[in-house]
């Protein structure tokens, strides 16, 4: 990588995220057809990847900001993965921005910690996890939603409150997974974006 990254870009890249949801590896069989797997190695090796990536990128351009990979959620198995990453000596020196996701499963039990934590897009839980390792960082929510069922108006109201709470509790930026407020299994797929642009456009205009 040359100094100043990639010269000549109309929109230079100022932020790099090192991986995505590597905690989804835990307990998964990479050969299985079920579930999603984004990383095929241990938390300790992810920490090593983060350190090497940070050092290499900053050597090319020290103004670039590095995001640690987004945590998939607050479930126990994900938490255990990140505990092993954050316990790596001096790991806080190898990322600039902390990163959490909140993808709410529909019709969750209101006593479920995952349901409750979605009330601020998992920000308080994640901030407290970082603080337990004496890590203080800017927090971004890079995948955000709070869809709990098929009532669109209720989902809009819930997401609005979740965003307000996330910002109040320490999130600096929030990025949404899509424009759909319905419990639509297609809302994450490219088919809607490619073939049914009006699907999102109509929803956006309805709540603009």
For the terminal residues, how far apart are their CA atoms? Answer: 42 Å
CATH fold description:
TIM Barrel
List SSEs in N-to-C order.
EHEHEHHEHEHH
The helicity comes to: 25-40%
Mean pLDDT: 84
Summarize the main sheet: 3 strands, parallel
Number of strands: 5
What does the overall shape look like?
globular
Note down, in words, how this protein is organized.
It is a single chain. This protein has a single domain (15-177), classed as Glycosidases (TIM Barrel, Alpha-Beta Barrel), CATH 3.20.20.80. 37% of the residues lie in helices and 13% in strands. It has helices spanning 43-60, 76-86, 113-117, 123-131, 152-168, 190-195, 197-206; strands at 15-18, 65-68, 97-102, 138-144, 171-176. The strands form two sheets. The protein has a three-stranded parallel β-sheet. A two-stranded parallel sheet has the order 1-2. The longest helix has 18 residues, at 43-60. The chain is globular and about 50 Å long. It starts with 14 loop residues before the first strand and ends with a helix. The model has no long low-confidence stretch (mean pLDDT 84).
Helices and strands in order, then pairings?
Blueprint: E1 15-18, H1 43-60, E2 65-68, H2 76-86, E3 97-102, H3 113-117, H4 123-131, E4 138-144, H5 152-168, E5 171-176, H6 190-195, H7 197-206
Parallel strand pairs: 1-2, 3-4, 4-5
Helix pairs in contact: 1-2
């Amino acid at each position: 990588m040359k100094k100043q990254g990639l010269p000549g870009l109309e929109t230079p890249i100022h932020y790099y995220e090192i991986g995505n949801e590597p905690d989804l590896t835990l307990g998964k069989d990479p050969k299985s057809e079920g579930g999603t797997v984004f990383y095929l190695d241990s938390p300790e090796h992810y920490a090593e990847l983060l350190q090497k990536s940070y050092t290499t990128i900053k050597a090319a351009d020290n103004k670039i900001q590095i995001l640690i990979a987004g945590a998939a959620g607050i479930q126990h198995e994900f938490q255990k993965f990140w505990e092993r990453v954050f316990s790596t000596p001096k790991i806080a020196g190898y990322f600039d921005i902390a990163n959490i996701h909140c993808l709410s499963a529909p019709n969750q039990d209101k006593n479920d910690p995952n349901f409750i934590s979605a009330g601020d897009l998992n920000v308080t839980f994640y901030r407290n996890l970082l603080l337990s390792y004496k890590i203080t960082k800017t927090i971004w929510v890079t995948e955000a939603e709070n869809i709990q069922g098929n009532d669109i108006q209720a989902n809009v109201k819930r997401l609005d409150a979740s965003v307000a709470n996330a910002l109040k509790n320490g999130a600096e930026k929030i990025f949404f997974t899509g424009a759909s407020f319905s419990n639509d299994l297609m809302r994450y797929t490219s088919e809607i974006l490619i073939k049914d642009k009006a699907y999102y456009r109509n929803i956006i205009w309805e709540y603009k």
